[in-house]
Structures are given as C-alpha cells and as structure tokens.
Amino acid sequence: MPQSPQTFIDEALNAARGFVALVAGKHNAAAFFDFSPRGLVGSLIAVLVAVLVAGFGPMLLGIPVPAGAPTQSIIVNGLLFAAQAGMAWIVLRQMGRQDGFVPYLVATNWVTLASGLLLLLSTVFGEMGLVLLLGVVIVALLTFVNIGRFIVTLSPLQIGLLFISQAVGVFLALGVVALFLPLPSTL
Fold first, then answer.
1. Is 33 within 8 Å of 39 (Cβ atoms)?
2. What is the pLDDT at residue 82?
3. pLDDT digit string (tens) for 65-85?
C-alpha cells in the first residue's frame, strides 16, 4: 500500500527531531530530514516563516520597533539567505560535492527556522535573553559543523572552507545592503 505524503506539520516535527539530533551530534540526524524535491520546498517554506518571524515577530509580541524595520529585516534576511545558499552552491561545486547541496540546504533551512524561533524567544526575556542569544550562536555553529559532518559528509577541511565561504557571502551581502538600504528611523 502506498504511503501517504507527510503533511508540512509532520515534516516540521521530523525536522525538529533532526535539529535536536544535530545539536546532540547524532550520526543519524540525516534520517529526520526529507531531501526530496517536496522536502526542499518544505524547507524553503520554513525559511520564509523564519524570515517573517524575524521581521514581524517582535511586533507580534508587543515589542516596539522602528518604522520600516520589519520590512528591512525581511529584505536583509532574504539577501543573506540568497548569499549563503549561493556561496554554498559555489563551494560544494568546486569540491565536486554538488550532491550535497540539497541536503545541506534542507537541513540548514530547518535549522534557520529553529534558530529564528529561539532568537524571538530571547527577546521576551529582555537582558536575560542575552544568555539565550549566546546559546543560539553556539547551537548555530554546532549545527553548521554537524550538517557538514553528518548530512553532507564533508571532511573537517571542507567544513572549514564552507564556513569561510558562508562568512564571506554574508559580509558581501551586508555590504551591498548597507549601500542601498537606509537605516531604520528611531521610535
């Protein structure tokens, strides 16, 4: 009997399990992610949700934000996503590991959503949220390395090269954004 396709909620719950497995350093983390074309689309929806949460989440929690800040946040995060994905594609192609691009993108996209939700949660705690923010940074680095190890199966040197390329892509994207977007007005 054919298995019915999983719903987006099922996919998100499995991806959450995959996120926890990546944080815990479990070798079977890849088993929780859907690397099919349908899974790629689901992960792109997860990134869209993460970008919207970054832009409008504080407002939904009643935190005052400067006029235009949510829109600018969405534009910046969208450009950063494109820069990171583009750099990952270039570097993995240069390594001869194009086969790892979709798995990398799927896992990274779901980690982005989990990180975005944790970042939003950190705003609720005010200054104490800085501790959670530090934790999110550590988790982001840990999951990046473990995606390289367990999802894409890269060597430590390849993971380092991918990390450097991601950093360069982000800095270049931020430079372009700084040239074209004005600073948000203050409250």
1. yes
2. 92
3. 888 888 888 988 999 999 999
